[in-house]
Specification:
rod-shaped, disordered C terminus, about 190 residues, about 75% helix
């Protein structure tokens, strides 16, 4: 009879451990999804600011028409992006184009003095900081989740229930890692 209680106790303990590990994996996966959602919210905020920024700059930057068109094109492409990697690529391209706009705007004193442009520039700066923080939080969440998928004993539960690792938000192209170069000699 005592052996039966011991066996039942071990089975109950194993069930509790499996449930706890499974719930921990679920919490981690939801944290990753929430972190991605926060990036998405900040990127949407940036995209909402872009049309106003482009309109403010248009009159001053006729020779930079291709940059403005690229920003508009990238903003339109955002709706079709599905995966983390597609959105990361668009974000990286857009960040480079926006840096170019801001660098060029520095050479137009009338534009820099325009209060509307200054307000938009500040809003964009704050949004870029929030995006940067959100990316870091997302990658931290992905690291914790992916670690749980690989360490014992949660890796056993993860494989039993087909948990998949999440992708990091990363810069894949070398161009996005470089400083923006502005050449007025063209």
């Amino acid at each position: 009879m005592t052996a039966l209680y011991i066996i039942i106790g071990i089975i109950v303990l194993l069930i509790i451990i499996v449930i706890a590990l499974y719930n921990g994996l679920i919490r981690s996966r939801l944290k990753v999804q929430n972190a991605w959602s926060q990036i998405d919210v900040q990127l949407q905020r940036r995209f909402d600011l872009i049309p106003n920024l482009v309109e403010s700059v248009k009159g001053y930057m006729q020779h930079e028409k291709t940059v403005l068109e690229k920003v508009t094109e990238l903003r339109s492409s955002w709706a079709g992006a599905q995966s983390v990697q597609e959105k990361a690529d668009l974000d990286n391209q857009l960040s480079g184009a926006l840096k170019t706009i801001m660098a060029v705007a520095e050479n137009y004193p009338d534009l820099k003095a325009n209060q509307g442009f200054s307000d938009l520039q500040e809003e964009l700066r704050v949004t870029e900081n929030k995006i940067s923080f959100s990316r870091q939080f997302y990658n931290d969440s992905v690291t914790m989740y992916n670690t749980k998928l690989q360490v014992f004993p949660s890796n056993i539960i993860a494989s039993m229930f087909a948990f998949k690792p999440s992708d990091f938000f990363k810069v894949d192209n070398d161009e996005a890692k470089q400083a923006v170069k502005v050449d007025f000699n063209n």
